[in-house]
Amino acid sequence: MSASYDRINRNPGYLTISTIRFTASVGITDRLEFGAVLEANRRVLVGRAEQLSFGQQALGLFGNRTPGALPLATERVSGSSRMAQLRFPPAADGILTGAAGYYNLLPFAGLVREGGGIGQVSLALKFRVLSESSGAPIGLAVRSEFDVPIRKGIEYLLLHPTGTADLQFGFDAIGSRNIRDVAGLYWNLGYRHINQPAHVSVVRLADEAPLGFGWNIPRTGRIQFLGETTAEVFFGSHTPNTTFGAEDPIDLTVGFRVGVIPRLSLSAGYRRVLNQFGRDKNGFVVNTAFVSSRK
């Protein structure tokens, strides 16, 4: 089991996203493992509201031009019952661009400058296909994952923009390769189908392919140096979006892990988004993990 706190930055909107997670997993058989993750608290800080559809609504650029006024039907993006087209320049007399402004995994951010609350629960089953300990040249596992939002109400999420308002599900292929005791290499290729917000046509969200590559050096030392590169690749049909930077963010994390006692470890890392601009691109992650002994 583990507990972690991390902070990342995303565009549009210069979003600073901080999340507290609790994770637990248990081996069902030698090959099958069940895991669960709870996002106990997620907080979203909006740095540039004018880059977001709901942010421009908060600024009073739609409807009767008062802060928070709903956009008129002619001001909404095609196919949406709530989300406005961005105005450019971001002023009441700015031209409607035809595109919305939102981050695909937190589409409701912007109406409030800062909001937070409980996030989602993720449930996963991982099956080990190959193992180096059994003589295979690489380790290989497949994992199915279901992400279930705890709060789905649109009005709630506009004030507490902690998720997408509906189920996400998909799978990951996870590979690993040990280089003696010198280093461990890990990679991940996944797919997530992101359902549209329940009960109301607010925004059509793209699917996601999470990608990752990581390493730890030395592989078995009490103190290890860690690195990880991850990418969120969005694809498929979605509401037209203006991202103000690369649509598919890439993060680099570097840090360390220390074995405090035989079954307790502490890790920390500095995280930086590599391909988006604006405000603070610095993030971090800290994690403590405990592994129980097997009888």
Tell me what you see in this structure.
The protein is mainly β and 295 residues long. It has helices spanning 53-58, 154-159, and strands spanning 2-10, 15-27, 32-46, 87-88, 95-96, 114-117, 120-130, 139-149, 168-179, 183-194, 207-217, 223-235, 250-261, 264-273, 282-290. It starts with a strand and ends in a 5-residue tail after the last strand.
In short:
With 295 residues, the protein is mainly β.
Which descriptors apply to this entry?
295 residues, mainly beta, 15 strands
Any idea of the CATH topology? Porin
Stretches where pLDDT is under 50 for at least 5 consecutive residues are none
How are strands sequenced across the largest beta sheet? 1-2-3-7-8-9-10-11-12-13-14-15
Number of spatially distinct domains: 1
Assigned CATH superfamily: monomeric porin ompg
Report, as a whole number of angstroms, the end-to-end distance.
Answer: 17 Å
Query: Which CATH first-tier class would you pick?
Result: Mainly Beta
Q: Helix and strand succession?
A: EEEHEEEEEHEEEEEEE
Helix percentage range: under 10%
Beta strands, count: 15
> Based on the structure given, which CATH architecture is correct?
Beta Barrel
Q: Largest sheet at a glance?
A: 12 strands, antiparallel, barrel
Total helix count?
2
**Tertiary shape:** elongated
Arithmetic mean pLDDT: 93
Beta-strand content: over 45%
Structural class: mainly beta
Rg, alpha carbons: 21 Å
Give the topology, please.
Blueprint (H helix, E strand, L loop, with lengths): L1 E9 L4 E13 L4 E15 L6 H6 L28 E2 L6 E2 L17 E4 L2 E11 L8 E11 L4 H6 L8 E12 L3 E12 L12 E11 L5 E13 L14 E12 L2 E10 L8 E9 L5
Antiparallel strand pairs: 1-2, 1-15, 2-3, 3-6, 3-7, 4-5, 7-8, 8-9, 9-10, 10-11, 11-12, 12-13, 13-14, 14-15
